[in-house]
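Dear colleague,

As promised, here are the two records you asked about, laid out in our usual form so they can be pasted straight into your sheet.

NAME FIELD: protein one
SEQUENCE, THEN STRUCTURE:
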Amino acid sequence: MSNGEGQHPPPSLRDLSVWRRFHVRLTLLYSSVVLIAVGTMTYAFYTSGVGIAMAGVRGRIGGTAVALARGIEAEQLAELKVEADRTKPVFAELEADFAAVVATEKDVLSVYVLVPTDTPGIFTFAIDYIAPGMHDPATARVGQSYDATANPTLLRGLDEPAVETEIASDAWGATLSGFAPVIDRGGRHVALVGVDGDAHAIRQTQRQIFRSAAELSLLAGIVLGLIGFVVGRSVREPLTRLMAATGAIAAGQLETRVGLKRRDEFGLLGQHFDVMASGLQERDRIRNAFGRYVSEDIAKRVLSGPDGARMGGEVREVTVLFSDIRSYSSISELLTPGETVELLNEYLSVMNAVIDDHGGVIIEFLGDAILAVFGAPNDLEGHPERALRCAMEMRGALAAFNTRVTAEGRAPWHKQGIGALAHRIGIHTGNVVAGNLGSRVRVKYAVIGDAVNVASRCEGLNTLLGTEILCTSSTRDRLPAELQAVLADQGTHDVKGRAQKVTVFSA
């Protein structure tokens, strides 16, 4: 006889002997379990409250540091080397910017810019602005040295935005500091912006939350102790576990099991619950696996009812977007198969996120190419505009992707004279048949029609015209005026496999 989970149905209530039933053993009490639950909830309440307060201050300080760093022209910092440079206009401009931030951000106590020297870990001040009214406001001189070797968070701030995780207490009071790099036009990290935030609010919140948690714990302990005395320990333990497991299941933690090793009504309830949870987990595993092969909208449509996977389709007006990486074959020759797959997966993930953000549905990946549709399987208002804006954002996302892989030394094609990765995008609006296509044993969601072919040919025309994004007049005529104004007429062209010429516009 197997003991595997779910292989045998759990016993029914009538299979229990009378002496094993719950009401026979109602006198067993579980007050200790209740008190542990109260303590756990109190601790969770305290840590969650403190964590939220800390995250809020860290987010504001880090965001302020990043915003200031992006607003600084790195080349100007070269003018600030010694204290006498405080008279230069660039110093006054930076000081005014910092003063405005300190005046509007209640958490900010001081803002400064540090420039690295040839000695690792040693910086010099370019500017140091301290909020008026601070105790003993002694600002650093321009060119004054600062040793940061004992501050790993500050050192990391030269490479990427970083915020301290612990509050530091010194003569200035309780502070929390954030840092962000200043990057010049060449992509070099030439300095960092530091922002010291007032952590007094966090300390005050910690005290308030601790007081509230203590009061709540005391009150809950008294109330639940009385309830535990009346109801009995035999009720509290299984109910607590069942409620916790139910909440976890509702939150999507389908691996949760009650695991009640009892031979009464609660034991039966726990067994039935675990069988149910196992079934839900298996269904969720199937649904998640299915969802990785098709878009979320298509998965929902197929799983929505018995007709979701029915063969056939419907005529829809959609906007089709077709993209492809330029010189992909040449680039892939410079990479190992593993590197090619890794690079391609990263690229497709970035593009997938952009398309999702604009309401598009990816029909399929064709190697390095992407076929996406706007307006199917569900209606999508303004799908031509969404598709064009998506294409423009894809171009920006690819530029950021290029910057990252180049900085990480994963762009060997530069040595072969191939510039940054670029893609060609074709967009066309028209009618398609959208639906399930295939056989009785295998089905896929597809869009079929001339609109798909035209979008693909438009993508190819980019090579001829030296452009990156082309849309047809069918798409352009459905765009708002401000978008039409940014498009450039690229003329009318023959396209392969189509007798009618296509007028295209570049973005």
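NAME FIELD: protein two
SEQUENCE, THEN STRUCTURE:
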Amino acid sequence: MPPTVTAPELVAAVCFGLAVLHTFSTGLFARLAHSQPRHAGLWHLLGEVEVVFGFWAFVLFAALFWLTGQAAAVDYVEGRNFTEPLFVFVIMVIAASRPILVSVMQLVDSLAGLLPNARPVAVFFLCLGLVPLLGSVITEPAAMTLAALMLRDRFFSQGLSTRLKYAALGMLFVNISIGGTLTHFAAPPVLMVAGPWQWTTPFMFATFGWKAALAVMINASALSLLFRRELTAKGRGREAGGEPMPLTVAGIHMAFLVGVVVFAHHPVVFMGLFLFFLGYTTAYARHQSPLILREGLLVAFFLAGLVVLGGLQQWWLQPLLTGIEPTALFFLATGLTAITDNAALTYLASLVQGVSDEFKYAIVAGAVTGGGLSIIANAPNPAGIAILKVGFEEQAVSPLKLLVAALAPTSVAALAFLLL
């Protein structure tokens, strides 16, 4: 054991490892809820993927309280930056509001009518191809929310095969992760390094963006063609008619969304906008559907737990990221992303001084490439799980099946970043 490793760091590493194992065991807790109905509530709670990291963050806090005392434990938690969990919660709720969802669905429907495929196939392709790329503008969490809601309502709720559901979920996670790299402000792992490394939107598009866009389109096209018969037979190609959405209401919702994106680094401002948004939706309730507050809070709880647990992992992560040849670093970053948040990896990389441009490219490309391999790999993934898990048995997503489903689109992304 290195002499510089402290007891809190060791405990944090153990808690982090147990949290990762817990994410792969949610199905077990779901079965326990059936076999032990007396404690079904507890088992269902522990079987919620979004609860896992928050639960183990509380375990870590209790351990720190015992090891270092109240003041030190509280200082550590208060010293963490919870801007990202707050932002994901706010952007997820606003992006899922009915006026914005209807507007995006109308855009998808209009574009689907221009494509030569059957309408359900065209809509499916746009959900996995166009919407992830919109994440570079409206942010990845917002794109994830919109794509997941459309997939849920038009495909997952229509009796698709489990194989197609996992394939779509794995590809959605991968495409969202790489689809946010066309700009410097939309993807969490890019945000961690854009300032310290002075990366701009033109640089991101020239270095990462066009490669990511090509990979996203290849992935979406391949899956749409492979399952075109099932999609045509079961998918819903057009949204059922309803009360038309006034342009003014849709515009105001878009303005709230843009305002939150612009002030993404300033929680005091975007939380104020969010409270104003809640008041507006109450005042004009006839144009609204229930806001996904519960789902958003669960996702924020998950990410906040990741922030608390991840803050004490630098002692073993940073040595892994230094002194490695760029190609090997790319694959290491891709693999590590599956068990850590990719933004945490790039944040640690931004702290290393005097690194080469090849190091910077490898660590970021690897981090976004591996963003679909697990639920914790990319910040928006829990949002997708929260929305789409209703389409799976026991409302539980198997981490192993998700990993397998994400391997093919991840390989396409890897080839794009390594060879182009």
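A couple of things worth noting about protein two: The chain has 22 helices and no strands. Residues 201-226 form the longest helix (26 residues).

Best,
R.
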